[in-house]
Design goal:
The structure holds 2 protein chains of 2 kinds. Chain A is an alpha/beta fold. Chain A contains 18 helices and 21 strands. The radius of gyration of chain A is 25 Å and the shape is globular. Chain B contains 13 helices and 2 strands, in the order ααααααββααααααα.
């Protein structure tokens, strides 16, 4: 019996189409996986189902009756619950408070705590949860336990369609097993579970059908029994390489080791072995949450390694990292990269000014020409610049101190095509001049096009090393845990 | 620079109004008398500016001014020979209070609003305890020269004000100023660029404490010794800075505008005085100004945000 049917869903943000013509349905008692690369449109689609976004086009039917959600509460009333990666729980309140937040049962005008706790206890029992009770503070619960609270909340509003967005992203191995059992219970209750995950193993373990999204469109919907992991990866990434990238380094361009790590680890990373060489661009691939950003921050000194060795220097703070000649272009340009209300000049000179010893004295003007900032106006406040120009300012900021190693975390995120090519050229020029570059990108064609070799991360480790020019399929299968790691 | 213009227009209008009401104001002596009266607040506003632009507040400066004056009177007690070491001590006290404010705010992660509110209470209590409500002792002649004496035709306080203002402008143009602005704008980005964010903020508090010490020295000579000499000055200083268009939360606004804001506030008080309205009404006026200035800043913000996206 079809419980949910979404037809022809389309959505644009600021004139940029994000989703077009998406069909998705789910039947009672089904786990339906939704997969796709970062940016394929999974989250937007689920937010439309949850009433967070209103679709521009298309219809949604639940139990054969058309529905229109203008607000998340509308979706809740229609029986849709969404469990986000970042939970929406109040940490200082009890489990029962959270389950009934905004819908507390009342008795003579006052909240009926006894009824609330009794009902919560019943729901937890149904979910087979006995490790905590209705009176425990959410703050004291583990991530897995909080997930159970979210699901109990969903049950308490009589949700019949549950969306789980990357539910295992922050779970430990044994907690994943518990989640499997939980999903099984929901299925047996006749609920439909829409399961979003990057991890192919889970898709095949849990789901009966899988819908593949790519670039905002649906590629296909197939029963998991009729498709293999390799085929699924091909469906997810199957696109042509049409971008042009500067030529890779010739063997003679690659020089001595600038930075090497042996057995590096911290709270989020394990067993990191790594060598970065002068003149080389090392690509770092991996799914969201695989530890790419954490690795960059560890090398930089912002979240240092706690174990292992690093030569020739081991920064324990950002200042030590900078002093040792390491630069980091963060993935969050506005939050971590720039002081938005300051001028281009003040941003470009910030690293130099933070050090007692000055970098090379190149003028700001010539630096801005080197990164091809246009217009090259050093007095403009950076918040008025386009994303591409902002990123050029961040790069200029590091070029002032000529670091030996430059770590780039999603250097072209939110950058238009023209600026992207300019940034690619700039990165290659820096490498040619002897800088050692580590580049993180979620866009595989970019990563493949730019990198002289590719390291793939999974679960906080480097799961494989692939030569430059490897296929997207090869990288994705290592990243998603399919196929033998190199 | 553009944001400095509105407050300069306001200041010019207020000065013109003063000139109309009281022609003596147009003569050098009249104008210098006004600057001399305004000097302590302008210096406090410059100190407060450093703290506000780094994203914090300093509510302790009023009590600190009182402490400076009371301590000076008691320790000097009329002896000319004690003047110089007491002056040094006062500067040290100012720096120390600022250092404590800064250390508590950054290292203990106590919001500066609370840190400096606590410091305000601690210093007020200490003054009361030490003096029993009526300060004892007297300032020396050499000490009082700074607040009321002249250097040739120019009052000493005007000379000191010019030096402080020049130093403040130079500091903001130096690397320190740029680091301070970046810290107040986005401390995460500043830290990831290698800026010592905590040290930078601590220095801002120290500068505010030093400004309070200088203001206290001037006020002691000018207004004499009382346990109320610094009362409410923290709010006047914050009002002045905000009136200068400096954004609460940090990262925006110029020190020149903050000092112009202090001059404007003093001019307004002087005008109210000339019309025979004064005393308690000053607080009311300040209250209206501070709310209106922040609201005006906030009202511009959404449109600017839209323009940038």
């Amino acid at each position: 019996m079809t419980l949910l049917s979404m037809r022809g869903i389309g959505k644009s943000f600021l004139g940029v189409p994000v989703l077009s013509g998406i069909d998705l349905d789910a039947t009672a008692g089904e786990v339906h996986a939704v997969v796709g690369e970062n940016g394929a449109g999974k989250s937007t689609l689920m937010k439309i189902l949850a009433g967070v976004h209103v679709p521009d086009r298309g219809t949604i039917e639940i139990d054969g009756a058309p529905v229109a959600f203008g607000h998340p509460l509308d979706a809740q009333r229609a029986g849709v619950a969404i469990i986000y990666q970042e939970f929406n729980l109040l940490p200082e309140r009890t489990v029962a408070d959270n389950v009934f937040l905004g819908r507390e049962p009342r008795r003579r005008g006052l909240v009926d705590r006894a009824a609330m706790e009794e009902e919560t206890r019943r729901l937890l029992g149904e979910l087979g949860e006995s490790s905590f009770g209705p009176r425990d503070l959410v703050r004291r619960l583990s991530v897995a336990q909080r997930q159970v609270v979210e699901i109990a909340k969903a049950l308490s509003i009589d949700a019949r369609i549950i969306v789980m967005d990357e539910p295992t992203a922050s779970l430990a191995e044994h907690e994943v097993e518990l989640l499997y059992a939980l999903v099984g219970r929901l299925r047996r209750r006749g609920m439909a579970v829409l399961y979003i995950s990057h991890r192919l193993r889970e898709v095949f373990d849990l789901a009966q059908r899988v819908t593949v999204l790519k670039d905002g469109a649906r590629v296909t919907t197939v029963p998991t029994a009729e498709v293999g992991p390799a085929e699924l990866v091909r469906l997810m990434v199957g696109r042509e390489l049409h971008d042009y990238f500067p030529p890779r380094a010739a063997p003679g361009d690659i020089g001595e080791v600038k930075l090497s790590v042996r057995g590096g680890g911290n709270r989020k990373l394990r067993d990191i072995d790594l060598e970065l060489r002068a003149g080389e661009i090392t690509g770092l691939a991996g799914l969201q949450g695989s530890g790419r950003t954490e690795l960059a921050k560890a090398l930089f000194g912002a979240e240092p390694f706690t174990v292992g060795s690093m030569t020739p220097y081991r920064p324990r703070s950002v200042r030590q990292g900078v002093a040792a000649g390491i630069g980091l272009v963060t993935e969050d340009r506005k939050g971590e990269g720039l002081a938005l209300r300051q001028s281009v000049r003040d941003n470009a000179l910030l690293v130099t000014r933070s050090r007692a010893r000055r970098g090379h004295g190149a003028g700001v003007k010539s630096l801005l020409e080197e990164v091809r900032l246009s217009p090259a106006d050093p007095e403009r406040e950076v918040r008025y610049l386009s994303g591409g120009n902002q990123q050029k300012v961040v790069l200029a900021k590091w070029m002032t101190v000529a670091p030996a190693v430059l770590l780039l975390d999603e250097p072209t995120r939110g950058v238009d095509v023209g600026a992207k090519a300019a940034i690619h050229d700039l990165i290659r020029r820096l490498a040619k001049d002897g800088m050692s570059i580590l580049m993180i990108s979620s866009e595989l064609p970019e990563l493949i096009g730019m990198s002289d070799r590719v390291l793939v991360m999974r679960d906080g480790r480097i799961a494989g090393a692939l030569p430059g020019g490897s296929s997207e399929e090869a990288i994705m299968s290592v990243a998603a845990g399919q196929g033998a790691p190199a | 620079m553009k944001r400095t213009i509105p407050i300069l227009v306001v200041l010019a209008a207020l000065l013109a109004a003063m000139a109309v009401v009281n022609p003596f104001f147009l003569e050098p002596a009249g104008f210098l008398a006004f600057v001399k009266r305004a000097a302590p607040l302008v210096i406090l506003a410059a100190g407060q500016y450093f703290v506000i632009v780094s994203g914090e507040f300093d509510l302790s400066v009023g009590s600190l001014v009182t402490v400076e004056v009371v301590v000076a009177a008691r320790l000097i007690d009329g002896q000319e020979s004690a003047t110089w070491w007491v002056l040094l001590l006062l500067v040290a006290i100012g720096a120390l209070v600022g250092l404590v404010n800064g250390l508590v705010t950054t290292l203990l992660s106590v919001p500066s609003f609370i840190t400096t509110l606590g410091m305000l209470l601690i210093l007020s209590g200490a003054v009361f305890l030490w003096t029993g409500g009526a300060p004892r002792g007297a300032l020396s002649q050499a000490f009082r020269v700074f607040g009321r004496g002249d250097l040739g035709p120019v009052p000493w306080s005007v000379v000191i004000l010019v030096v402080v203002a020049a130093a403040a402008v130079l500091l903001m143009r130096a690397d320190f100023g740029k680091r301070l602005m970046a810290t107040g704008d986005n401390d995460r980005a500043a830290a990831l660029s290698g800026v010592r964010v905590a040290r930078t903020r601590i220095l801002a508090f120290v500068l505010s404490g030093l400004a309070a010490a200088v203001a206290g020295i001037l006020l002691g000579g000018f207004a004499g010794v009382s346990a109320q000499v610094g009362q409410g000055l923290e709010f006047s200083a914050i009002t002045a800075v905000v009136l200068g268009g400096v954004v609460l939360g940090g990262g925006r606004g110029s020190v020149v505008a903050a000092m112009a804001g202090a001059f404007s506030l003093e001019a307004l008080f002087a005008l109210l005085n000339l019309y025979g309205i004064s005393g308690p009404l000053e607080y009311t006026v300040q209250g209206v100004i501070i709310i209106a200035a922040v609201a005006a800043g906030a009202a511009q913000f959404p449109s600017r945000l839209r323009a940038s996206t």
